[in-house]
Amino acid sequence: MTPQSTEFRKKIVNQKSPLLITFCFLIIVSYVAFFHHNFWIIDSDGIIYLTAGEQILNGDGKNVHLVNAPIGGPIMYAGINSFFNDGFFTMKLVSVLSSTGMVFLSYNIMRNVFDSKTALVGQLLFAFFPWVGIFAIQAENEMFPLFLIMLSLYFVTKKHLRTYEIIIIGSLIGIAFMFRTQPVVVLFTVIIYLLIRNSNIRINLYHVGLILAFFIIFLSPLIVYNFSVHENLIDVDSNFYMAMRYKYQTPEWHDEVVRSIGKGTLEGISVDFNLFLKNYFYNQFSSMPTNLFGFDNKVNSSLIPFIPYIGLIPILGGTMYILKIRPNKINSIILVSVSSLTAFVIFLVGDFDTHFFAIVMVPLLILGIINIRNANRNFTPLLILPVVFTVTLSIIHLRAPEHFLLILISIIAISAIFIMKVIPKIIRLKTKNYDDLFSGNVKIIIIIIIALILVGNLGYSYVTFKISSSGVPFTNIQDEISFLSQNRQIEQFGLDWKPLIDELKKQPGIEQSVIMSSYLYLPYHIQSKSVFVSFNEGSENDSVENYILRKNWNDIELMNSNIRSNPIDRHNIIKPIPDYIIYTPTPYLKTEGWQPPAQLEYLKILSDPNNKEIPSNFELIYESQIPQEVFVYKINR
């Protein structure tokens, strides 16, 4: 037996528990993804990526526009799908494999900086984190770039970085950037870490140069494509998120920012810099911590989402332990003075309800900077990452749990050290047992805490998946057990839409027909072309005939429709004419950020098939009240 094979066998033996956890995760998410997630509904944004990739590979890339991601992911998904010919399966498969790799990497990243027991606990917390499991089964564009990011962090957190590992890090971040732009946060994190890790400035600058060089090299295919096809370098910016999600905005500002989509983030910021700053600090000190720790949201990204605000305790406690922040005189003075100064500034020029979390974040940041040398050097990147994340991504409004998966490894690592190191010390002080850090009672308490978190997160994952797939709210545990014992199908939304889908699939020539709908997933399942609408575009006093031809729509409404249609029509040259319209009257719902107009009144005649004002060439072919009120008309020509 060769020394290499012996070394490999040793690694396998040493990692049998992490491998077992990874394998169990793979089996569970594969089972759910391929046997209980059969309708592309809750993750329908993935349809846009698949459509874009297929259109690019078919030679029509010039007419493709993605407002929130580069074209790397769509091309990869469409390329793989050319073998499977099932886009939903293809994208789920990529998510399942990517998330499984992330679970395995979570152990190895934490093993770089912790002992094996703490790393194993961290891996369990990561594997049971609800949003890892939920997005592991979805046909979305989230998990593969996150896998690449975590792979780069595995190398970054190693104690001794070799030159080839520096090259790998830059290459991985460059590849990840072709799927999502958020990896730039990791790029900034790595650069800061390399510059401050020691006093060898020459070597540090050399490594930063290598990172940037290989980042650009692996990003160059995207840059060349964008410049040759669209005459810009990146072709994606933050302006869409600004326009749709900023809390503070005016109609004029909204329209200007929408028109600046594709022209660069600076273009959107410069529309009204003061308004941008107002939203930036709201995002940083109110929206982000609120959505992360669930201060007023049931949907959150806390370590313990069923009691979300408790998740702040291990973050604060673990950070103080890692940085060795002692309650001494200097730290106490810094804490009091910075907190007081921050509160005074908020009182003077801010708003306490909006910027309240700055009183926690700013002192912790200052104490962290002062005590950063106390942390293990290779743990430093995981401490820098959330800071860079907050400073950088406060440009946009982060609300959805998947937005915070980028910093999940930092949250889990800090929480694991709190559970495995800080809690035993607290118990030891309470019981005055100074000799044995992990006595029998302490072990039992730690096991109970970990078990409660894991079981609670597993339950939260199930309830979240069930609500999003069926619309049936959680009532109590007894009802859920009864529901499971009846072996009922969870995906009620898909089952409710299936009769409509089956009916339209029977229509002659449906594959070449164009369906006008406010749902991305219905035309996909019907296997037709589509025109996306919200039934609020155009003039208030118009006709149904003009609406379906999208006459009298402004340029913003046309753009929003075209980039969500199939095929995508960036330059408005296809001008599709609908053959069918799926009309779903919906009540006006107020949402955070930009408020879309309510549905047009004159279109509501479509909800009364006997109304004589309905055009004579509209033939009602389907009507249902489930899953909601829906009317399908065939437009005869």
Largest sheet: number of strands, sense, barrel closure: 5 strands, mixed
Low-confidence stretches: none
- Derived structural class: mainly alpha
**Spatial strand sequence of the major β-sheet:** 2-1-3-5-4
Which helices and strands, and how do they pair?
Layout: H1 3-14, H2 16-35, H3 45-57, H4 72-84, H5 87-113, H6 116-128, H7 130-136, H8 143-156, H9 163-177, H10 184-196, H11 201-230, H12 239-245, H13 251-259, H14 265-269, H15 273-293, H16 312-322, H17 329-349, H18 352-355, H19 358-371, H20 380-393, H21 408-431, H22 440-470, H23 477-485, H24 492-505, E1 514-517, H25 521-526, E2 529-532, H26 544-548, H27 555-562, E3 580-583, E4 618-624, E5 630-635
Parallel strand pairs: 1-2, 1-3
Antiparallel strand pairs: 3-5, 4-5
Structural description of this entry:
The protein folds into four domains: 1-223, no CATH class; 237-271, no CATH class; 274-437, no CATH class; 493-635, no CATH class. With 637 residues, the protein is mainly alpha-helical. The longest helix has 31 residues, at 440-470. Strands 2-1-3-5-4 form a five-stranded mixed β-sheet. The chain contains 27 helices and five strands. The N and C termini lie far apart (76 Å). α2 (16-35) runs parallel beside α6 (116-128).
